[in-house]
Structure to design on (370 residues):
């Protein structure tokens, strides 16, 4: 369908009719007929160009396909790209939600962007967003790869294990947040109950750690550059819960990649005397590059969309040790009525998403997959 649409837009479909325009003369030469849109020789030696419309006829496939793709194209253009454009225009105003914004071009400025880049709260939220993006994605990929290798060993009840590992991904962020808020409860949470049972068995004192608000001193590790003196549990608790939810997705992607590798590669590595670890390290894992990139892009997008999870756990203000750009955007726009500033943070978050997805789409385009 796309190839046909491209031919109609470029006019190739209307040039096809010129292929049969040549006929043999009686003396064996070629008699060239009058081509559509072709040039003819004038009596004075010049050329007369015949212009003809390239628009498709009403009974063409292009016109008949319009009712199927034009309405969703217009709706997406209005409600997606139009909303992004309006959000950018709004970020150039001083709209605070109490009156209509002024759309005079002479009054547009980048004051809200300068405010964001000079706001310490913005940089804290941006730092937490990047940490969540990198650490969460890395943990999911590592755990997903290990699970995929284990499930790929032709074990019994493979489908059951695969379903169990993938089941958390089917839950919404809201359900996951409520579930882990109960798990992290200092008094009645399952995590502390299990840890206290183990500590009591070992003859140690029980604990009542507040996983969503506590902290721990790094001790002598604090002397290392970039290592803070105190580590707060909140951001790590968020990443642990999200890793539990989405590791199954990485497992499925890697498992599909493993099943696509021919058995000859495994057999050749074993014939060469490679151990199982060396075989996966040198032969199998390098062939999972495409699976790794695909899974990493999707996981990073999920990390940028973790607003629901944090909002259920902490509300619109998770504090400096759990705040990310999406929660800051919501807080500035809907709680503080700084709509222009909230739109600015939203555009910066959108730019981060493009930074994640753009290189992947470009690489797929270069490989001919798009």
């Amino acid at each position: 369908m796309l190839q046909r649409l491209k031919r109609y837009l470029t006019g190739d479909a209307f040039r096809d009719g010129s292929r049969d325009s040549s006929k043999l003369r009686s003396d064996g030469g070629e008699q060239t007929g009058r081509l559509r849109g072709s040039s003819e020789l004038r009596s004075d030696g010049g050329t007369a160009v015949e212009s003809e419309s390239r628009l498709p006829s009403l009974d063409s496939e292009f016109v008949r396909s319009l009712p199927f793709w034009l309405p969703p194209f217009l709706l997406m253009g209005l409600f997606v790209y139009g909303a992004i454009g309006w959000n950018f225009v709004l970020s150039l105003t001083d709209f605070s939600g109490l009156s209509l914004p002024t759309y005079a071009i002479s009054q547009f400025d980048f004051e809200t962007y300068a405010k964001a880049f000079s706001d310490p709260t913005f940089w804290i939220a941006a730092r937490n967003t990047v940490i969540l993006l990198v650490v969460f994605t890395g943990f999911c990929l590592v755990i997903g790869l290990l699970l995929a290798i284990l499930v790929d060993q032709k074990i019994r009840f493979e489908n059951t294990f695969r379903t169990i590992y993938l089941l958390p991904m089917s839950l919404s962020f809201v359900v996951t947040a409520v579930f882990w808020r109960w798990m992290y409860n200092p008094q009645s949470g399952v995590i502390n109950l299990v840890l206290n049972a183990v500590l009591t068995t070992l003859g140690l004192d029980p604990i009542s750690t507040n996983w969503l608000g506590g902290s721990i001193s790094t001790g002598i590790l604090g002397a290392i550059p970039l290592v803070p003196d105190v580590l707060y549990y909140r951001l790590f608790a968020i990443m642990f819960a999200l890793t539990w939810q989405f590791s199954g997705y990485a497992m499925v992607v890697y498992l599909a990649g493993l099943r696509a590798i021919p058995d000859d590669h495994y057999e050749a590595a074993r014939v060469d005397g490679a151990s199982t670890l060396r075989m996966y390290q040198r032969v199998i894992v390098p062939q999972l590059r495409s699976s790794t990139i695909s899974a990493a892009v999707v996981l990073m997008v999920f990390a940028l969309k973790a607003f629901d999870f944090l909002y259920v756990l902490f509300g619109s203000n998770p504090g400096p040790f759990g705040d990310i750009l999406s929660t800051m955007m919501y807080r500035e726009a809907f709680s503080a009525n700084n709509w222009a500033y909230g739109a600015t943070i939203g555009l910066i978050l959108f730019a981060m998403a493009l930074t994640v997805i753009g290189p992947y789409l470009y690489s797929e385009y270069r490989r001919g997959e798009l």
About this structure: Strands lie at 22-24, 30-32, 39-41, 47-49, 215-217, 230-232. Residues 114-175+241-366 form a domain with the MetI-like fold fold (CATH 1.10.3720.10). The chain is about 60% helix and 5% strand.
